[in-house]
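Appendix B. Chain record.
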Amino acid sequence: ELGWISKVYVNRPAVVRHAEQIKKWKTVKGNWQAAWLLKAVTCIDLTTLSGDDTPSNVQRLCFKAKHPIREDLLKALDMHDKGITAGAVCVYPARVSDAVNTLKAVGCNIPVASVAAGFPSGQTPLETKLAEIRLAVEYGAREIDIVISRSLVLTGQWEGLYEEIRLCRAACGEAHMKTILATGELGSLANVYKASMIAMMAG
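Structure tokens predicted for this chain:
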């Protein structure tokens, strides 16, 4: 039941005020800062999404993902033996096999993520989106990053958005799915909130 979603209201001035407060928060320093930065590296997807991607530049990206920080810096922090790697390598579906094979060859278990579902515009028929997701998973992607059809948000078709995301999630099978909302194209903070809630409800 998604009828409630159309009644959502976002207090924009309050959101802006809170965002301004966040900028004033104190940051961590010294060893804690280094620890947080190292943790951040392990959460980053190293990504190449260029029209001129080739197997060789995907291979370079995979080597960088395995060794994202210079060895001398890791030794100085006594972290050289802790297995610090990037969180994932993200590529287009056509390059998934290149990334999977390279990471396997270098003995690294970093997951390969693939954008799909008509990335970046989302202006692709649903059947094509689902086929692209299934192919990326078949090629070895362990994470699928989908994009939503922004037109469904802008025209208030919340049930349609729910169904699209639900079908994409089913197409992922065992692969993890992330939903890219393209918030800059959704028109309002209320639409961002609604799309976020629907994406979570759809899995």
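Further analysis of this model is presented in Appendix C.
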